[in-house]
C-alpha cells in the first residue's frame, strides 16, 4: 500500500470553536485513503491563525517527511488548507512528494505536467490573496471597533475581562481583580511608595494571592515593569491606546482622570530621579528639603568615609558668595530630629479621628449648600445644549442644513454636553472626596512617624516631600515647615489638648 500522511488545518478560531472543520477534514481524508489504497502512517493538525510560515503541525509534518523518504504522499482537503503563502508551496515542492488535493480531485507531484503545476501555483496565489484580504478586513474591523470606542484587543488590562454583548466581545469590570488595580493607583498617587514598596503593600494586603490558590483568577505575582505598565495605562480612566493613537473608550472606568494624572506625576518624578543618577548626581534623603537658616542658601549633602571604613553623610550650606558660619550636620542626627517632629502631628487615639470626622461632615454639608447654584447653572446649560441638538436634528431631517454642517455643529454640541457631564460628575465626586480626603489626611498624620521610622531612604524622601516644604537648617537643628493641610493639623495640635478634645486656647477651627 502507498504510505501517506494526513494534514488538516483550521484557518480561524471560529472554525475551531464551531467544531466542524477539523473533524470534517479528517473524516473525508481517512475515507479517501481507505477507498484509494493509502496507508495513513501519521496525521498532523494545525489550529493556529498566524499568517507567517512556521505553524507547529506544518513544521512537524515537513520534518517527518524529510526523515521518512518512503512516505511520499500527502493527503489534504484542498489547496487553501495546506498553503497560506508561497513559501509554504516552495517547502512542500522541495520535498518531492505527491500532494493529493481530495476535494479538488487533483494530484501534484513529480509526474504532474506543466499545466497542472501552473494551475496549482495559481491556486496557491489565490489562497494567499484570500488570506491577505482576510487580514485587511480584520484590520479594518479592528480600526472601526476602536473608532467606535470599543477596545479592539483580545486581552484587556488587569481589572477587566471580555464579555459577549450583541455578538461582540467588550471589556467589562472583573470583580475579582478590580480592587488590586484600584488600590495600586490610590496608594501610588500619595507619593509615599516606590514601585517595589507598592508591590509589597498589595502583597501584604492579600491582593496578590499565593500560588496555592490556582482556582482564583487574581494575580499571584507582579513585577516592577508590570506595575508601571498598569499605572501608565489610560484604559483605567476610560481611554485606550491602539496603534499608537489615543481613543475615547465606551467601557466603564475604574478610576478618575484626576487620580490617573496624579499617578503620572509621581511616576515622572521617579523618572527624573533616574535621570539624575544617570549623570552621577547623588540622591540623598534630605536633598532639596532644607535651606540654610542663616543665609538662605541651599543645603547640600556629601558622603565621607572614616578611616575605620564607616560612611557618614553630612549636610551643610553651600556658602555660595557668603560668609555663612554654619557647620555640617550628620544625617543620622537630623534623622532623629525629623522623627520627633513627625510625632507632633500624631493623634493619640482613633476616637480623636472620629471626633474631627464629625466636624468634617458638618463642613461638607456647608460646602454642598454653596455648590447648589453651580450645579443648577451647569444643568441649565446642559438642557439648553440638548434642546439645540434636537433642533439641529430636526433641521437636518427637513434638509434645511447640509450634512457637513450638521456633523460639525452636532459634534460641537456633543463635546460641550460631554464636558458638562464631566463637570457635574466631578462636582458630585468632589463632595465625597472632600470628606474622604479629610479622613485620609488625619490618618496619615497619625501614621507619619511610624511610616518614617520603618521606611527606607528613598521612601523617607517621598514621605518628607509629601509633608514638608521650605524647612531650614541652622546650628545643626532642623526647623520644620509643613505643607498644607498638615500645617493646620500641626498648629491645631500645638494649641489643643487632644486627650479631651478641648481647646486650651479656644478659637475658630482653621
Q: Note the overall shape.
A: elongated
- β-strand amount: 15-25%
CATH topology of the domain at 2-146: Rossmann fold
What is the CATH H-level superfamily of the domain at 2-146?
Resolvase, N-terminal catalytic domain
Cα(first) to Cα(last) distance is: 98 Å
Strand neighbour order, sheet with most strands: 2-1-3-4-5
Structural class: alpha/beta
Uncertain stretches: 50-54, 211-216, 275-282, 498-510
CATH arch. level architecture of the domain at 2-146: 3-Layer(aba) Sandwich
The helical percent reads: 40-55%
How would you sum up the major sheet?
5 strands, mixed
- The first-level CATH class of the domain at 2-146 is given as Alpha Beta
Number of alpha- plus pi-helical segments? 15
Q: Over all CA atoms, what is the radius of gyration?
A: 35 Å
Instruction: Estimate the mean pLDDT confidence.
Output: 76
- Count the strands? 17
Helices, strands, pairings?
Layout: E1 2-9, H1 13-18, H2 21-36, E2 38-46, H3 56-67, E3 73-76, H4 79-82, H5 86-94, E4 98-101, E5 106-108, H6 114-147, E6 160-165, E7 168-173, H7 178-189, H8 195-204, H9 224-232, E8 239-242, E9 245-248, H10 257-278, E10 290-292, E11 299-305, E12 311-317, E13 329-330, H11 331-343, H12 350-397, H13 403-453, H14 457-467, E14 471-474, E15 477-479, H15 486-495, E16 496-497, E17 502-503
Parallel strand pairs: 1-2, 1-3, 3-4, 10-14
Antiparallel strand pairs: 4-5, 6-7, 8-9, 11-12, 12-13, 14-15, 16-17
Amino acid at each position: 500500500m502507498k504510505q501517506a500522511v494526513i494534514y488538516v488545518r483550521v484557518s480561524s478560531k471560529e472554525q475551531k470553536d464551531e467544531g466542524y472543520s477539523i473533524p470534517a477534514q479528517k473524516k473525508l481524508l481517512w475515507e479517501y485513503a481507505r477507498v484509494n489504497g493509502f496507508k495513513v502512517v501519521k496525521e498532523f493538525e494545525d489550529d493556529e491563525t498566524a499568517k507567517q510560515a512556521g505553524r507547529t503541525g506544518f513544521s512537524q509534518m515537513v520534518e517527518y517527511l524529510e526523515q521518512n523518504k518512503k512516505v511520499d504522499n500527502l493527503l489534504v482537503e484542498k489547496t487553501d488548507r495546506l498553503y497560506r503563502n508561497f513559501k509554504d508551496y516552495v517547502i512542500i515542492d522541495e520535498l518531492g512528494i505527491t500532494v493529493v488535493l481530495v476535494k479538488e480531485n487533483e494530484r501534484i507531484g513529480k509526474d504532474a505536467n506543466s499545466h497542472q503545476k501552473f494551475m496549482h501555483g495559481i491556486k496557491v496565489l489565490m489562497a494567499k490573496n484570500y488570506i491577505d484580504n482576510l487580514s485587511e478586513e480584520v484590520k479594518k474591523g479592528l480600526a472601526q471597533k476602536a473608532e467606535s470606542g470599543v477596545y479592539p484587543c483580545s486581552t484587556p488590562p488587569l481589572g477587566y475581562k471580555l464579555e459577549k454583548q450583541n455578538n461582540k466581545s467588550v471589556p467589562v469590570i472583573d470583580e475579582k481583580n478590580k480592587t488590586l488595580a484600584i488600590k495600586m493607583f490610590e496608594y501610588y498617587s500619595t507619593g509615599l511608595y516606590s514601585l517595589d514598596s507598592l508591590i509589597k503593600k498589595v502583597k501584604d494586603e492579600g491582593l496578590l494571592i499565593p500560588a496555592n490558590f490556582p482556582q482564583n483568577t487574581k494575580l499571584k505575582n507582579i513585577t516592577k515593569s508590570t506595575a508601571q505598565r498598569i499605572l501608565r495605562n489610560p484604559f483605567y480612566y476610560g481611554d485606550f491606546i491602539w496603534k499608537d493613537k489615543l481613543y475615547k473608550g465606551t467601557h466603564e472606568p475604574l478610576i478618575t482622570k484626576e487620580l490617573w494624572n496624579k499617578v503620572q506625576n509621581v511616576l515622572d518624578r521617579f523618572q527624573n530621579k533616574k535621570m539624575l543618577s544617570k549623570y552621577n548626581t547623588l540622591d540623598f534623603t534630605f536633598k532639596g528639603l532644607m535651606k540654610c537658616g542663616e543665609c538662605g542658601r541651599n543645603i547640600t549633602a556629601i558622603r565621607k568615609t572614616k578611616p575605620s571604613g564607616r560612611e557618614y553623610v553630612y549636610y551643610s550650606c553651600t556658602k555660595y558668595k557668603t560668609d555663612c558660619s554654619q557647620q555640617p550636620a550628620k544625617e543620622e542626627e537630623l534623622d532623629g530630629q525629623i522623627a520627633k517632629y513627625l510625632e507632633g502631628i500624631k493623634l493619640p487615639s482613633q476616637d480623636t479621628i472620629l471626633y474631627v470626622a464629625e466636624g468634617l461632615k458638618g463642613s461638607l454639608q456647608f460646602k454642598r449648600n454653596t455648590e447648589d447654584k453651580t450645579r443648577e447653572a451647569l444643568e441649565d446649560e446642559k438642557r439648553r445644549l440638548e434642546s439645540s441638538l434636537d433642533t439641529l436634528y430636526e433641521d437636518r431631517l427637513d434638509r434645511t442644513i447640509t450634512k457637513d454642517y450638521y456633523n460639525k455643529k452636532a459634534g460641537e454640541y456633543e463635546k460641550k454636553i460631554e464636558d458638562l457631564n464631566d463637570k457635574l460628575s466631578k462636582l458630585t465626586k468632589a463632595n465625597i472626596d472632600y470628606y474622604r480626603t479629610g479622613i485620609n489626611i488625619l490618618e496619615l498624620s497619625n501614621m507619619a512617624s511610624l511610616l518614617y521610622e520603618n521606611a527606607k531612604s528613598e521612601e523617607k524622601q517621598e514621605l518628607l516631600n509629601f509633608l514638608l516644604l521650605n524647612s531650614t537648617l541652622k546650628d545643626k537643628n532642623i526647623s520644620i515647615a509643613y505643607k498644607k493641610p498638615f500645617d493646620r493639623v500641626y498648629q491645631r495640635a500645638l494649641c489643643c489638648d487632644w486627650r479631651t478634645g478641648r481647646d486650651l486656647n479656644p478659637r475658630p477651627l482653621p
